[in-house]
Amino acid sequence: MLRAAAQTPNQPEMADALRGSGKIYVVVAVITVVLAGLLFFLISLDRKLTRLEKELEE
């Protein structure tokens, strides 16, 4: 029993199950949306900080 468990490949079973059912695309889409939102937030924060820095210089 122990040898059988040691001989199984180290592939993540969850990824295979998600890929098999087609839900891997949902996971990829959610990760993409979260990263795009984070990027948008950082860009808008940078613009606000730049505007504040210009106001403080005057």
Automatic annotation (TrEMBL):
Keyword Transmembrane helix listed: yes
Keyword Transmembrane applies: yes
One family name in Pfam for this protein: CcmD_alt
Transmembrane segments: 24-45
Protein name: CcmD family protein
Lineage of producing organism: Bacteria, Pseudomonadati, Bacteroidota, Cytophagia, Cytophagales
Keywords: Membrane, Transmembrane, Transmembrane helix
Origin superkingdom: Bacteria
Taxonomic source organism: Hymenobacter rubripertinctus
